[in-house]
Amino acid sequence: MNKEELDLLKKAEEVTDELNKYFHKKGKSVFNRYSVFFALTVIVGATLMSQGIKGLLFEIPFLYNSPLMMFLSGILVLIITGTLYKKLDK
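The structure assignment produced for this chain is given below.
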């Protein structure tokens, strides 16, 4: 046996590539046939998630009583995630 035959990572990558190709062929027709259903499902899911996060934020008295603090906390989160993205993108 040579080194390429023993490389488990390469074998796993090949198997996942084949599975992705197989499921992509199968899934593509489903999305084309039911595109409106999937679009509405995504919209409903995103709306529910957004409203759920909003409800969770309003459960925190510190943020609920001070909209300015909620705004500043949001800006801080965006700055932190932007900085993290820039560092990870390099």
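Interim note for the steering committee: The chain has a mean pLDDT of 82. The CA atoms of residues 84 and 90 lie 10 Å apart.
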